[in-house]
Description:
By secondary structure, the protein is of the alpha/beta class. The chain contains nine helices and nine strands.
Amino acid sequence: MLSLVTGASSGIGLQYATQLARDYKSDLLLVSNQQKELDEVAQDLASKYGVKTIAKYADLSLTDAAENLYAWCKEQSLQVDVLINNAGVFFFNEYCKTDLKRIELMLQLHVMTVAKMTRLFAADMCERRYGYILNMSSMSAWMAMPGIQTYNASKAFIYNFSKSLWYELKPYNVHITVMAPGAVDTGLFGLAPNLRKLAVNLTVSIPPEKLVKRALKKLFKGKKADTPGVINWLSTPLLKHTPDWILMLAQKKLKKFMR
Length: 259
């Protein structure tokens, strides 16, 4: 089995690569735009778990990145059995103060590249009648939150796109799962250690390794979608109906984080 993991040099992508090698004995095609870190990860995982690893540098925010990566796989006679579309970016800013290139980068990476990667590799999987695809969305897909308007819109695309494809791909024995986690326990939000621990205990936040373990289980069981955490799952319908005054207050409080 060969698994292609994007954004594999760090963070959640590194967890996907590690657990696929360690727990599923999968060979790996690791893709990232961080060449040095990517090479180190590939060497480390091959040494630790005895799997074949291939490090492939690629900037997936480029308009032809998916086509080029797919063509390269064909040239190398690589058959991708598992596709993990994990690569992503995040920024928090007022839309009219955000550089157009940053907006374009996020939309290209989260929308067009995910759509193209899924289209190209899923077609081969359908022909073989076997394959797995996992796409990373977010609970923010249901949030009309100022400051992350481009991010949450792109994650909403990934969520609905993936759930719709689940029906199309199932007759071909190709399984697609979309994960929509809430907060992931990293340093991204700048919370104090005690607050991060509290968030994890309340299941509002989830450690990256736990998220990935759950995601892979859902993927290989053929589940359509998943939102980890009981509180997150229960609060999802409420996010669609958050009162405007709360969002306006949040905008004032969070303005200091905009960049």
